[in-house]
Amino acid sequence: IAGRAEYIDILSHHPLLRAVRVDKLTLAALEGTLLDYTAGRPQQDIPVQRMLNTPDEVLAERAAALAGLLAPLPGWTVDVQPSLSQAGGGSLPAVDLPGWCVRVRSDALNAAAAEARLRRRQVPVIVRVNDDSIILDVRCLSDRDLAEIRQAFAEIEGSAL
C-alpha cells in the first residue's frame, strides 16, 4: 500500500488486514508466475495463458477426441459444436472466445439430473446445461482429462438404469 502515512496507519490496524495480507505462499506463487513471464514462455508455462491461447484446431481435435470416447457409450447422443467460452466473470466479463464443445444428451436422464450426478462424483465433472443438453467446453480440459470424463459418463448412465 502506498500513500499518506496517516491513512496507511489506519489501514494497518483494520481487521481485514490479516485476511488480505500477502503471505509467503502467495509471494512464492507470484514469483513463479513472474519468472514464467520473464522467461518469455507464458503461453506454454502458465495454465490460464495456455487455455486462453489454445489454437482453434487443437480445440476442434480435442472435442472430436472426447466425442469419439463418449459416442460408443449406450444411452448417450453426442455431437461436436462450435461454442463461445467465457474468459472470466470478474476480469473479462464481456470477452467471448470462439472454440469447440461436445454436446451430450442422455436417453434416460434429463440434463439437470445428469449434471448433478457428474458434479457429485469423487472427481467432479463440471459442465454447462443448455436446452436439456450437457455441454462440455474443451478449452479447459487437458488430453488426460478425457478418459476420466468418459468414465464419469459410463458411471452415471449405469446408475440411471
Structure description:
This protein is an alpha+beta fold. The protein is built from eight helices and four strands; from the N terminus they run ααααααββαββα. It has helices at residues 5-12, 16-20, 24-38, 42-45, 47-52, 56-70, 111-119, 145-160; strands at residues 76-86, 96-106, 128-130, 133-137. The chain starts with a helix and ends with a helix.
User: Strand sequence of the main sheet, in spatial order?
Assistant: 1-2-4-3
Strand proportion, as a percent range, falls in 15-25%
Largest sheet: 4 strands, antiparallel
- The averaged pLDDT comes out at 88
Q: Uncertain regions: pLDDT < 50 for 5+ in a row?
A: none
Q: Structural class of the secondary structure composition?
A: alpha+beta
**Helix content, binned percent:** 40-55%
Rg over CA atoms, rounded to whole Å, is: 21 Å
**Rough outline:** elongated
Oligomer: single chain
User: Helical segment tally?
Assistant: 8
SSE string, helices as H and strands as E: HHHHHHEEHEEH
Number of strands: 4
Spatial separation of the terminal alpha carbons: 59 Å
Structure summary:
With 161 residues, this protein is of the alpha+beta class. The chain contains eight helices and four strands, in the order ααααααββαββα.
Task: List its traits.
alpha+beta, 4-stranded antiparallel sheet
Topology of this structure?
Layout: H1 5-12, H2 16-20, H3 24-38, H4 42-45, H5 47-52, H6 56-70, E1 76-86, E2 96-106, H7 111-119, E3 128-130, E4 133-137, H8 145-160
Antiparallel strand pairs: 1-2, 2-4, 3-4
Helix pairs in contact: 6-8
